[in-house]
């Protein structure tokens, strides 16, 4: 779908869940006790909640967190199958609610993680990728459709940064990660 120019290590598929399942997931995410994202002294425009493992961006502490809820286990199994992994390998999950105008700046997921598998819900989003080439950046973009899934591993995880452009409609994501 995205042509041969995408970086190695990125897989993508549309329509991995039904609309009715999407609505149920969004409702469950809203009821899961989300809180504003904190990065040092700044508060992000998105709401988050982690399960399995947590990372505190103020202290740099990576620690065990609350168990992954039962309602996420079927989606975790589907994400693991998409990535060719055992569901138990996906030990961390991050729920995010993006309000209007929210996005995520350039970053790489923490080096303790290996596979990153995201399910996109609600509004479409643009996921941007960049990697340094000399004094400039090589760049790519992928549109994440509602109810789609992506898997990042290898080159795309290790060599590229990614971000989510600010959106003009609400979006939710469920991101599963394996430990390295």
Write up this protein:
There is one protein chain. This protein is α+β, with helices and mostly antiparallel strands. The chain has a single domain (10-179), classed as Alpha-ketoglutarate-dependent dioxygenase AlkB-like (Jelly Rolls, Sandwich). 16% of the residues lie in helices and 48% in strands. It contains three helices and 13 strands. The protein has helices at 19-30, 73-83, 155-159, and strands at 10-13, 35-39, 42-51, 53-56, 61-64, 90-98, 104-107, 113-122, 125-133, 136-144, 148-152, 161-164, 171-179. It has a seven-stranded antiparallel sheet with strand order 1-11-8-13-6-3-2. A four-stranded antiparallel sheet has the order 7-12-9-10. Strand 2 (35-39) and strand 3 (42-51) form a beta hairpin. The radius of gyration is 15 Å and the shape is globular. The two termini are 29 Å apart. The model has no long low-confidence stretch (mean pLDDT 90).
Q: How many domains make up the coordinates?
A: 1
CATH-defined topology: Jelly Rolls
**What is the subunit organization of this protein?**
single chain
Low-confidence stretches: none
Secondary structure tally, helices: 3
For the record, the CATH architecture stands as: Sandwich
Output mean pLDDT. Answer: 90
Task: Kindly report the name of the CATH homologous superfamily.
Answer: Alpha-ketoglutarate-dependent dioxygenase AlkB-like
DSSP, total strands: 13
* Amount of beta strand: over 45%
User: Over all CA atoms, what is the radius of gyration?
Assistant: 15 Å
> What strand line-up does the widest sheet have?
1-11-8-13-6-3-2
Largest beta sheet, briefly? 7 strands, antiparallel
Cα distance spanning the termini: 29 Å
Percentage of residues assigned to helices: 10-25%
Give the overall shape: globular
The CATH class is identified as: Mainly Beta
- Structural class, by secondary structure, is alpha+beta
H/E series: EHEEEEHEEEEEEHEE
């Amino acid at each position: 779908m995205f042509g041969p120019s995408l970086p190695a290590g990125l897989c993508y598929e549309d329509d991995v869940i039904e609309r009715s399942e999407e609505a149920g997931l969004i409702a469950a995410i809203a009821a899961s006790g989300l809180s504003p994202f904190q990065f040092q002294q700044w508060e992000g425009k998105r709401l988050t909640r982690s399960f399995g493992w947590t990372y505190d961006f103020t202290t740099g502490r990576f620690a065990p967190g609350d168990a992954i809820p039962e309602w996420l286990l079927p989606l975790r199994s589907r994400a693991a199958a998409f990535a060719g992994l055992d569901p138990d390998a996906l030990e961390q999950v991050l729920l995010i609610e993006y309000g209007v105008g929210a996005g995520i700046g350039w970053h790489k997921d923490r080096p303790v993680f290996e596979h990153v598998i995201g399910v996109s819900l609600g509004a479409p989003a643009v996921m941007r990728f960049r990697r340094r080439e000399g004094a400039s950046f090589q760049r790519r973009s992928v549109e994440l459709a509602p109810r789609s899934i992506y898997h990042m591993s290898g080159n795309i995880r290790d060599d590229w940064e990614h971000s989510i452009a600010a959106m003009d409609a609400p979006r939710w994501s469920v991101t599963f990660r394996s430990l390295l």
